[in-house]
Amino acid sequence: MRKGLRTLFHSDSLLIRFLTKVCDVLFLNVVFVASCATVVFSGTAAASIYAVALKMIRGEDYEPVKGFLRAARENFLPSVPATILLFADITLIAVLYRLLYAEVLLVSPAVFILLAIGAWLLTALLSYLFPLLARYENTFPKHVGNAARLALANLPVTFFLTAVNLLPLLLGIFFPSAWGLVTDFWLLFGFALGAYLNSFYLNRIFSR
Questions:
Q1: Which among 75, 146, 191, 196 is least surrounded, fewest beta carbons within 10 Å?
Q2: Cα–Cα distance for residue pair 105/10, rounded to 1 Å
Q3: How would you class 142 by CB atoms within 10 Å of its CB: exposed for 0-12, middle for 13-18, buried for 19 or more?
C-alpha cells in the first residue's frame, strides 16, 4: 500500500502531472483576467495566453506567469490592431445580447441574423488571429489574411474554436440561472482552459 501511495504521489505520476497542469491553468487564467481588467491590454493578453498555451501543448518548458508577462511585452505593439477588432467583436456581441433580451422588437429578425453571422465570423477570425500573433512574426495584414485562410481551410476546427470562445456566452443564454457559476468558473479557469483546448488543434494546424 505504501509503495502504491509513493507511486501515486511521485513527481512523474499521472496524478501529480494532472494537478500541476490544473495549477498552471489556474495561474495563467488569473494573470490573463488581471491583464484584461486594464481593457487596453485585452488584445495583448489574448495573444499572450496562447503563447503559453501553445508551449504547454508542445511540451516545451514554460512558466505560466513569467511566460505570459514575457509574451505580453513582446506582443503589445503587434496586437494593437487586433485589440481594435476584439473591441468591435465584443461590442457587436453586446448589442446582440441587448437586442435578444429587449422588451420590444428593436430590429427585424433578418437584421438580427445578419448581425449574429457577422459576430460569429469575426470571432472565428480572431480565434486564429491571436494564436498567429503569439506564434509568428508577420505584418498585421498578412496575419489577418492567414487567419482568414486557415479559418476557411479548417471549417470543422474553426467551428470548434469559435464555439469554445463563445461558450460562456452561450451557456449564459441557454442556462440563465447558471450565470453566476459560469462567471466564477471562467474567472478561475475558463479562459486559459479554452486556450489550452484550442491550442491542441491549432498546434496541429501550425505544424503543417
A1: 146
A2: 60
A3: exposed
Residue 54, classified by CB atoms within 10 Å of its CB into exposed (0-12), middle (13-18) or buried (19+), is buried
| pLDDT 10s digits, 123-155 | 999 999 999 999 999 999 999 999 999 999 999
Measured from the Cβ of residue 194, the count of other Cβ atoms closer than 10 Å reads 22
155: cell is 471549417
Name the DSSP letter for residue 39.
S
Alpha-carbon 123 to chain mean position: 10
**What is the helix, strand, coil percentage profile of the chain, to 5?**
85, 0, 15
Task: Identify the CA nearest to 158 among candidates 123, 133, 116.
Answer: 123
Residues comprising the chain, all counted: 208
